[in-house]
Prior knowledge:
Blueprint: H1 3-9, E1 53-55, E2 61-63, E3 70-76, H2 81-99, E4 104-110, H3 115-123, H4 132-141, H5 143-150, H6 154-160, H7 165-176, H8 178-183, H9 189-196, H10 199-216, E5 223-226, E6 229-233, H11 236-245
Helix pairs in contact: 1-10, 2-4, 3-7, 3-10, 6-7, 7-9
Pfam family, one: Thioredoxin_4
Domain Thioredoxin-like fold: 60-244
Keywords: Isomerase, Signal
Amino acid sequence: xxxxxxxxxxxxxxxxxxxxxxxxxxxxxxxxxxxxxxxxxxxxxxxxxxxxxxxxxxxxxxxxxxxxxxxxxxxxxxxxxxxxxxxxxxxxxxxxxxxxxxxxxxxxxxxxxxxxxxxxxxxxxxxxxxxxxxxxxxxxxxxxxxxxxxxxxxxxxxxxxxxxxxxxxxxxxxxxxxxxxxxxxxxxxxxxxxxxxxxxxxxxxxxxxxxxxxxxxxxxxxxxxxxxxxxxxxxxxxxxxxxxxxxxx
Length: 249
């Protein structure tokens, strides 16, 4: 059975914990690559690197200079407390000090842990590529409220999982309060329903997550890859020195 089928048929009765520990595994240590200091790279005239988004072949959303000498990838779960903590503590300095300089690009890829994750991962893709990062950050910065809504109506959620595939995640989003959350942030309810009724795109997100996690040995979130090297699950306090060691200093 594919990952999508497993998630689509799974129960949503298990509670979602909102903690700061790495989600899906114990925190791991990784050795960061070493590099010489790299120079700032100016963005094209009239643009800023922090506003530049590229969708990659791996279905990641790369923020910043596509040719940055230091490439950072995060595998994050939108229902993960540790990922929310990273967004709260690290996202602003990561963008302002590193991405804006053109030295570091930051690519976010979703790792899917459950049906809520999968629903949210489709919703943050529901607008222009430039909205992916702000919407993801909004989920993380409001994660307590998001998860509270996701657990509030178990009977409706269980009923949602019995729907046909093209309506299942629409019903999950409705029951969990996700449609209202995203409508308040620029994704209309009709737009969200259209996105969530596209079963093929949702299946692709789930199966990409599973395939890449296995290939790259991503066992928890948030996990980071710096210039192709998996450095494991990190906080901003431990990740920043790794970026500097790689040359962003």
